[in-house]
Design brief:
It is a single chain. It contains nine helices and 39 strands. With 729 residues, it is mainly beta. It has a single domain, classed as TonB-dependent receptor, beta-barrel domain (Maltoporin, Chain A). The strands form five sheets. The chain has a 22-stranded antiparallel barrel. A hairpin with an 8-residue loop joins strand 31 and strand 32. GO terms for molecular function: siderophore uptake transmembrane transporter activity. It is found in: Cell outer membrane.
C-alpha cells in the first residue's frame, strides 16, 4: 500500500503541471461527465426506441466512460456496477457453456447477446469494443426468445460503431500479479465523403493470479467493424469479434459430502481446518485453449418517415480444448476424521458449438387519429449445432498440509488419461458427449399505444417453435422432438409528472424446452411440457434535474412451474423424474444514477431476493435454491472530477460491493454450506487531458477474503493495483 501512495503522490504532482496545457472548457467536461454517468434510454429493451421513464421494463446500463474511469478492462468486472447482479463463476473457457455465470433475481444468467442477437462468448470477455452494457430484468422470452435468456433477465452488450472523424487511442497497463496489457482503438473514414467508415479495437492481456503469479494466462481480442451509408435512408453495419484465451481455470471447490461429514458449514470454518485461500492445489500446464468467433451484420433501411426496416444476421462459434481441474473436500480414504482435498479433472477435447441467426424487424411510429402507436414486428430463425466431447477422471486425495501439490500437472494428467483409454469401459466411465442440432423459428409483434399524454400501454406476443433434430447426451441417444410455445407480455406506464416521475407495472413471460425426461424405472422417456416463468412487477421511475438523477424502485414476483423433479433412479443410475416442480422468486430492487453537483456522480443499488421451492421433493421443499446467490446485494461507486481550476481533469472514485451469506448447499440430506458475507472496496484516481490519460486503481484495498460460487466455492482476488497510460489522437 505504501507504493500505491507514492504513485498517487507522484501522479498528483504531474497533474498540477499538466493542467496548464488542458484546453477543454468546463462546460464540455461537465457534459462528458453527465453523459458518462446518466442512465441511457434504450433501443433494445423492447426492440424499439423508448425513454427510460416511459419503458415498463426495468433495466440497468453501464457505459464505456464508467469502465474507463474505473480502469475496468473486462465485461466480467463491469457487473459490479449493476444493481441486483452477483458474479457466480468466472469463465471456464469451455465451448458452449464456458462463459461467466451471473445471478439475476435468483436465477442463473450468462452474457450471451450482442446488439440484441445471440452471440455468446465462452472466455473472459474483453470490454475493448463495448459501448454500453444493458441488463434487462425479468423473464424476457417475448422479444428475445428462450434460448439465451434467463428467467432473471437478459444481458446485452452494445458494441462500439465507427464515427466520421479520424481518431483513437493507444493504452498500456500493468499491475499486480504480473499483469500487463496493450490495447488500441483506431477509427478512420475510408472515403472522402465519409460514407464508408472503419474502426478497429484490439487488445492483448497477459496476467497471473493471486494464487499463481506466474500463470501467464493470455487473452487476445480483435474486433474490427465497418459502417457504410450510401444514402440517407440506407445503413450497413458489419462487425467481427475474435477472442482467444489460453488460461488456467479458477480454483473451484464442489460439495459432494454433507457439512456434518466435513466438520464445517462455511468457508471461513474450512480455513480453520487447514484450507489455504492462496493455494491453487495443482501444478503447471493445466490450461485450456479457447476461441470465440462472432460475426454481426445489419442492414437498416428507412422505408418512409414512419416505417424502418432492420435486417440482422449473426453467427457465433466457440471452441475449447484442454484441461479443467476441479476439487472437492473429502475425508481421507484412510482416516474418516481427516478432511482433505480430492482432485479431479474434466477436460474438453476439440469441442465446438455454433449458432446462426437471421432476424428481420419492422419498426413503425404512426398515429391512428390522435393516438400514437409505436410498433415492432419481426421474425427470427436460429440454428444451433452442438458438438462437444469431455473426458473426466479422479486424480488423487491430498491433505491440507501437503508440502507440494505440483504432481497434478499437464504431463501426469495426460498420462492418466492415456492409461484409462486402454480400458474397455473408458467411453462409459470417463467420457461425456453432448451433440445435437436445433432449429428455432419465431415470430413476434409488440405495440406501445399512447391513448393520452403520459400514458403508455405495451402489449407483446411471440410464438416460438423448436425443432430438435436429435443428438446424444452422455452415452445415450437423445430423440428428436418438435415443440412450440406462446409468450405474451404486457406493460403499463403512467407519468405522474411529465418526463420526471412515472409509475409502472408489467407482466413478463419466459419458457424453456427441457426435452425428454426418464419417467419410470424401465427408462421410458416422456417429452416434457415447456417450463414456464411468469413475472408480475410494479414500481416507480424518476428522471430529475434534466436527467441528472435517474432512479428505479420496483417489486417483482416470479413463479416458475413445470420444473423437473427427481423421484428416484433406474438400475443404471439415471434419474427418474416427474414434471411437477415449482418455485417462487420475489424481491425489491432500488437503483440510482446521479450527477448530484458539478463533477460529482454516484452509481448505487440495493436489492433483496426471497426465493424458495414451493413444489419439490422433501429434501429441498421450502428452501432457497443453492444457485440463488446472496439474498442481499449492495453496490456503490462515488466519483468526483475537477472541472475547472488548477486541478481540472483530475478525478477519483471509491466504491464497493456488499453481499450477504450465500447458501451454496441447502438441503435436508446435505445440510447447509455458506459462502460468508463480504464487503469489497475499490478506489481509483485518474487524470484526463486532451492528448493523454493516466489512471491508477486499487481493487479490494482492504484485502478482503471472499468467495463466489455456482454451488461451488471459488476464492476471489485479494488486494491488487493496476496503472494505465493512454495516448489519444
Amino acid at each position: 500500500m505504501k507504493n500505491v501512495l507514492i504513485c498517487a503522490s507522484a501522479l498528483g504532482t504531474m497533474l498540477v503541471s499538466a493542467q496548464k496545457k488542458d484546453s477543454l472548457t468546463t462546460k464540455s467536461i461537465d457534459e462528458v461527465v453527465i453523459n458518462t454517468y446518466a442512465k441511457k434510454d434504450s433501443d433494445y429493451s423492447n426492440k424499439m426506441p423508448l425513454k427510460a421513464i416511459e419503458d415498463p421494463q426495468v433495466y440497468s446500463s453501464i457505459g464505456k466512460g464508467v469502465l474507463e474511469n474505473q480502469l475496468i478492462f473486462t465485461v466480467d468486472e463491469a457487473f459490479r456496477n449493476v444493481a441486483g447482479v452477483q458474479k457466480m463463476w468466472s469463465a471456464t473457457n469451455r465451448a458452449g457453456d464456458g462463459g461467466i455465470y451471473l445471478n439475476l433475481r435468483g436465477f442463473v444468467a450468462g452474457n450471451s447477446m450482442r446488439n440484441g442477437m445471440v452471440a455468446p462468448i465462452t472466455t473472459s470477455m474483453d470490454a475493448i469494443n463495448i459501448e454500453r452494457i444493458e441488463v434487462l430484468k425479468g423473464p424476457s422470452a417475448t422479444l428475445f426468445g428462450s434460448n439465451v435468456t434467463s428467467y432473471g433477465g437478459v444481458i446485452n452488450r452494445i458494441t462500439k460503431r465507427p464515427y466520421e472523424t479520424f481518431g483513437g487511442s493507444i493504452s498500456l497497463a500493468g499491475g499486480s500479479n504480473n499483469y500487463y496489457r496493450a490495447q488500441a482503438d483506431v477509427n478512420a473514414p475510408l472515403t472522402n465523403d465519409k460514407k464508408l467508415l472503419f474502426r478497429l479495437n484490439t487488445a492483448y492481456t497477459n496476467q497471473g493470479t493471486f494464487q499463481k503469479t506466474n500463470a501467464k494466462n493470455s487473452f487476445y481480442a480483435f474486433t474490427p467493424s465497418l459502417t457504410y451509408r450510401p444514402t440517407d435512408k440506407l445503413e450497413i453495419n458489419a462487425e467481427l469479434e475474435m477472442l482467444e484465451t489460453n488460461a488456467y481455470p479458477e480454483t473451484s471447490f464442489f460439495f459432494y459430502f454433507p457439512s456434518s461429514t466435513l466438520g464445517a458449514d462455511s468457508m471461513d470454518k474450512m480455513e480453520k481446518l487447514g484450507y489455504d485461500y492462496k493455494q491453487t492445489y495443482m501444478g503447471d500446464n493445466l490450461k485450456t485453449t479457447a476461441k470465440a468467433r462472432n460475426f454481426f451484420g445489419q442492414v437498416n433501411y428507412k422505408i418512409n418517415d414512419h416505417i424502418k426496416s432492420s435486417t440482422n444476421v449473426s453467427t457465433s462459434y466457440s471452441y475449447s480444448d484442454g484441461f479443467n481441474p476441479y476439487f472437492y473436500f473429502k475425508p481421507s480414504p484412510d482416516n474418516a476424521l481427516e478432511i482433505g482435498i480430492a482432485r479431479a479433472d474434466q477436460s474438453t477435447k476439440d469441442s465446438k458449438r455454433t449458432y446462426f441467426q437471421l432476424q428481420q424487424n419492422f419498426n413503425a411510429d404512426f398515429k391512428i387519429g390522435s393516438v400514437r402507436n409505436r410498433t415492432v414486428a419481426g421474425f427470427d430463425y436460429m440454428r444451433m449445432n452442438d458438438n462437444q466431447f469431455f473426458m473426466f477422471t479422479e486424480f488423487d486425495w491430498v491433505p491440507f498440509n501437503a508440502a507440494d501439490y505440483s504432481n497434478m500437472n499437464g504431463q501426469t494428467l495426460a498420462e492418466k488419461y492415456k492409461s484409462l483409454q486402454g480400458s474397455p469401459t473408458f467411453d462409459r466411465d470417463n467420457t461425456y458427449i453432448s451433440t445435437g442440432k436445433k432449429d428455432v423459428y419465431s415470430g413476434y409483434i409488440s405495440n406501445v399505444i399512447t391513448p393520452v399524454t403520459g400514458l403508455n400501454i405495451l402489449t407483446s406476443l411471440r410464438y416460438e417453435s423448436v425443432d430438435f433434430k436429435g443428438g446424444q447426451t452422455g452415452q445415450n441417444p437423445t430423440p428428436a422432438y418438435t415443440q412450440g410455445a406462446w409468450s405474451p407480455k404486457l406493460g403499463i406506464v403512467y407519468q405522474l409528472i411529465h418526463d420526471k416521475v412515472s409509475v409502472f407495472g408489467n407482466y413478463q413471460n419466459s419458457f424453456t424446452s427441457n426435452g425428454y425426461y426418464i419417467s419410470d424405472a424401465a427408462s421410458n422417456v416422456t417429452l416434457s411440457d415447456p417450463e414456464r416463468a411468469n413475472q408480475f412487477e410494479g414500481g416507480f421511475k424518476a428522471s430529475l434535474v434534466k436527467g441528472r438523477i435517474s432512479t428505479t424502485l420496483s417489486y417483482y414476483n416470479i413463479k416458475v412451474k413445470n420444473t423437473l423433479l427427481n423421484i428416484g433412479y433406474t438400475a443404471q443410475g439415471r434419474a427418474i423424474q416427474r414434471q411437477a416442480g415449482s418455485l417462487t422468486s420475489s424481491g425489491v430492487e432500488l437503483e440510482a444514477n446521479a450527477y448530484l453537483i458539478k463533477g460529482f456522480s454516484v452509481i448505487a443499488g440495493v436489492s433483496y431476493n426471497d426465493m424458495k421451492y414451493t413444489e419439490a421433493d422433501n429434501d429441498v421443499i421450502g428452501r432457497r435454491p443453492a444457485t440463488a446467490s446472496s439474498p442481499w446485494l449492495v453496490n456503490l461507486n462515488a466519483s468526483y472530477q475537477f472541472l475547472d481550476g488548477k486541478l481540472k481533469g483530475l478525478g477519483f472514485g471509491v466504491g464497493g460491493n456488499y453481499a450477504s451469506d450465500n447458501k451454496i448447499v441447502n438441503s435436508t440430506s446435505m445440510g447447509t454450506f455458506i459462502l460468508p458475507k463480504y464487503l469489497v472496496m475499490n478506489a481509483n484516481i485518474f487524470y484526463d487531458a486532451p492528448k493523454f490519460r493516466i489512471g491508477i486503481k486499487v481493487d479490494n484495498f482492504t484485502n478482503e477474503k471472499y468467495w463466489n460460487g455456482y454451488t461451488t466455492a471459488n476464492a476471489q482476488q485479494l488486494a491488487n493495483v493496476l496503472g494505465s497510460f493512454t495516448y489519444k489522437f
